[in-house]
């Protein structure tokens, strides 16, 4: 919790590890952010990063944030997805419409 005091964001991983973002880690981190906010009133952002390659996965992280932290966190200054390979899948999904 102390580290959150000087943080604007926390993120799941750098994307360079063997195991990157997981839904379980996202839930734990979002609960920590929520608890920190309840104690301090300071909003800390969440960034899911590493291994997110599909629109479906990105939407799952969005749902986790919304469920645990609420819709207030669904804005760029508080919620981000770091996934360089995600753009191709988003373009593909948009092309289906």
TrEMBL record:
It catalyses: 2-deoxy-D-ribose 5-phosphate = D-glyceraldehyde 3-phosphate + acetaldehyde. It comes from the Eukaryota. One of its GO terms (cellular component) is cytoplasm. Pathway: Carbohydrate degradation; 2-deoxy-D-ribose 1-phosphate degradation; D-glyceraldehyde 3-phosphate and acetaldehyde from 2-deoxy-alpha-D-ribose 1-phosphate: step 2/2. Pfam families: DeoC. InterPro entries: Aldolase_TIM, DeoC, DeoC/FbaB/LacD_aldolase. One of its GO terms (biological process) is carbohydrate catabolic process. Its EC number is 4.1.2.4. Keywords: Lyase, Schiff base. One of its GO terms (molecular function) is deoxyribose-phosphate aldolase activity. Belongs to the DeoC/FbaB aldolase family. DeoC type 2 subfamily. This is deoxyribose-phosphate aldolase.
């Amino acid at each position: 919790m102390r580290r959150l005091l000087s943080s604007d964001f926390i993120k799941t991983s750098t994307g360079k590890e063997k195991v990157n973002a997981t839904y379980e880690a996202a839930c734990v981190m979002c609960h920590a952010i929520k608890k920190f906010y309840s104690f301090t009133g300071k909003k800390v952002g969440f960034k899911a990063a590493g291994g997110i390659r599909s629109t479906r996965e990105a939407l799952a992280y969005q749902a986790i944030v919304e469920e645990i932290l609420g819709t207030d966190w669904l804005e760029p200054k508080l919620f981000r997805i770091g996934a360089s390979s995600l753009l191709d899948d988003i373009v593909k999904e948009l092309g289906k419409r």
